[in-house]
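Hello Y.,

Per our agreement to keep a running log of every chain we model this quarter, I'm adding this entry. I've kept the format consistent with earlier entries: sequence first, then predicted structure.
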Amino acid sequence: MHDIDAFLAVLPKGRARRLTIVGQFFRFAKAHKIVLVDPARGLSAKTPKGFTGQTITLEQQRVLFRRWTTDPSVHPHEALLGILALLHGASSNEVRRLRATDIDPVNRTIRRGERPHPVPVDPASWSILQRCLAHRETQRTDNPHVMVTKGTKAGRGPASTAYVSHVLDPCGVPPRMLRSTRLVDLVNTLDPKLVAAAFGMNPEGAMFYLADHIDDGRLPIRLWPG
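Predicted structure for the entry above:
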């Protein structure tokens, strides 16, 4: 049953069509005694309430965390976007627009996007941020952004959306999934209104991440309060 729910949740807009196909298959299988019961029976074509997007498991988070904090061969941009999305729920847009002047080295905080207050940075994220700044220094650029590419080092604009959308390709997990993992954890364990205020989101945006049920394997690890 859970496998069928997961299959239907991959494309919420196609739930009704997918359920019809699954139902036909299992009715055929049951009629020919291939299966004893029809696991699709009783499932509704209506999209269930609550968050239905994809998140990553605890083990996946541990693997990614180790990759970004211990593997020197990983590009600094991948490590920065990945760790800020996973631990702090940062969006791709927030990371690509992050400027060197947004960083407070004394208090170890950064200002990001629409967030009303500086965000405290944990030691692991701070180390990766310093590595990314060191990489920026090698570019010999006047571009104020932390994430500087070959295409932006001669100017002052942020890295392109297209560039950032592929930064995490080597690890196989898109930024949105990492951000969703963090937000699902926060919204379902804290007051959604507080999360919305901290992230500079409207309350309705935070409520989107409420889930009626989350499998234990999908719950994110508490690495840092973010």
